[in-house]
Amino acid sequence: TTATTATAAVASSPSKTTPSLQHGGSTSTLPKVLPDKLHLPGGVMISLNVRSQLPSAEALKTALEARGVEVWLCTNNIQGGNSFRDEIVACIKKSRAVVCLINEAWAQSGECKDEFSLARRRNLTSHESGRTAAPQPRLPGIVPIAFPGLNWESHPHVELLAASTNFLLCDKEVISPDDSIIHQVLLALLQFCEEGDAPAEEAAAVAPHGAAGPVPKPQPKPKPQQHQHQRQQQQQQ
Question: Model's pTM, two decimal places?
Answer without folding.
Answer: 0.72
